[in-house]
Amino acid sequence: PGDFVAFTGMQKAVSNNMMATLNIPEFRVSREIQMDAFDSLYQSLKPKGVTVSAMLAKAVALAIAKHPIINSSYLEQGGAPGIQYNQDINIAMAVAIDGGLITPTLKYANERSMVELGENWKELVGKAKTGTLSPDEYNSGTFTISNMGMFGVTDFGAILPAGSGGILAIGGTQETIVPDSAAVLGLKKVKKMKVTLTCDHRQIYGADAALFLKTLADIMENKLDMLS
Predict the structure, then answer these.
(1) Assigned domain for 4 exists
(2) What is the CATH number of the domain that holds 21?
(3) Which of 92, 99, 162, 228 fits as disulfide partner to 144, beta carbons 3.0 to 4.6 Å?
């Protein structure tokens, strides 16, 4: 019949966290983001140690700052339901490691420089791979990013983490043809990336999610100076 392999402690924790969110009424909203300018900025910052993960975290954090409801969580106090608005914007990012999954956190991501975030992220990933992250370095996220683009995945939806209001699933960049009146034949080739936001529908509504993604796209396409 095959071998049975018991869960490790980390696998148990992941399983329990997934089960804890089963009763949450979640929904998903997707949007494509043009990546040409973002990729060019990354190439210019790469020699300084800046990573794509750090850039994504900063862009998401800046968008969240304009839409605080996305950084919130559902909470009951004394039996009364309400919204817990998190003052700090701490971006947790999923990292696959041997035997499981962990979410190192870039704290105060909207307030820090790209170089600082890049250095911090490399340090956190190193600790994650050696099992030396402190609880505060993986339990303090207020919003989560799951990026599977490096695995060739173009589109997916992520399960909402327990105690969180939202998680952003990021697919890989793809080339596509779009209309352009200034181009030869009226067409040009661009790079696009699809992102999907999963939200807790108890406190976050469809318009909230759509406006957040609109702001994120605007930052990544037109306002890259904000990422400095």
Answers:
(1) no
(2) 3.30.559.10
(3) 92
- Domain of 40 in residue numbering reads as 9-227
Q: How many domains does the chain have?
A: 1
Q: Does the annotation mark 67 as catalytic? A: no
Instruction: Give CA–CA dist 59/77, Å, rounded.
Output: 32
In a domain, 3, yes or no: no
Catalytic residue among 27, 201, 202, 226: 201
Task: Answer yes or no: is 1 within a domain.
Answer: no
- Using an 8 Å Cβ cutoff, are 193 and 172 in contact? yes
CA dist 225 and 208 (Å) reads 25
Residue 49 structure tokens: 């140690």
Q: Are 50 and 115 in contact (CB under 8 A)?
A: yes
pTM attached to this predicted model: 0.92
